[in-house]
Model the fold of this input.
Amino acid sequence: MKRTYSVAPMMGRTDSQFRYLIRLLSKKTILFTEMIHSNAILYGNKNKLEEYNENENPIVLQLGGNNPDSLAEVSKIANLFNYDEINLNLGCPSPRVSKGGFGAALMNHPELVCDCLNAIKENFNKEVSVKIRLGTDNNDIDETLDKFVEKIESCKIEVFYVHARKAILKGLSPKQNREIPPLNYERVKKLKEDHPNLKIIINGGIKKLSFLQDNNLQNLDGIMIGREAYSNPLIFKDADNRIESKLDKGISLYEITQEMFDYFETLENTSHVKRGLIHMHGLFNGHTEAKKIRILLSNSVYLQKAKNKILSILEKSINEAA
Done:
């Protein structure tokens, strides 16, 4: 699986409706599910794994949890579906997640991480990867990161998605953890230099597909984009051209909008439609009628009427630009 571009897992955002939107823009970009705790699947919503469409591949199932037995059971179930990879979340700094002993807190327990990964690998027949931070709290990111990665590598894990920040588990909110700990791209670059056999994908503060070239990080294996992917999904419109060295025009904003509304008409769950309409807001960043379009998107009761009005606005923009 070519990991040139990935969309980061984001709670409340990278659901099947948002993934459908990104897949319209790019067939090659790797999509991630939201993080799903193993217990949520085993003892809660057992249908959660089914919330994807076959056209979403390549897609990675991201799991949270710290119980090898539970992760093993979920991995067995995952084989029934067409996920291309399972990723273990070792980077979420949420206080609730930390209290539960998973996410970034697990980086302080590499032996347990290996037990979890071995349990997944023994029960899932495709690639297994991890998403990590540079370290936690007061850990030395030079010493502890190397030791941690070496330990995980010894478990036959080769794919590392690295958020280029520390996780501060005490005193910072998840939002603050995405902004306050400084980004350290050079540390990720050095990690790849020290472990050239590993696939290292960098995450954190990335807003352009040209990020690796712009920052002299071409030795890395790809980029993972989070918040920018959500607020400005059109950045992925050129992803496939860049991957395949092509110059195709690609899908237009009008066509994306029309296809999203056609897709909504196939959904029976109205809450899924509402979420999908919210996910579309970022599509219209920079458009002169963005505010008006977002107001229309906020009214899912009059779906057909909103569709017709928005398409009319976009068609008028096309004609004016001609």
Notes: The chain has a mean pLDDT of 93. Residues 118 and 155 are 7 Å apart (CA to CA). DSSP finds 15 helices and nine strands in the chain.
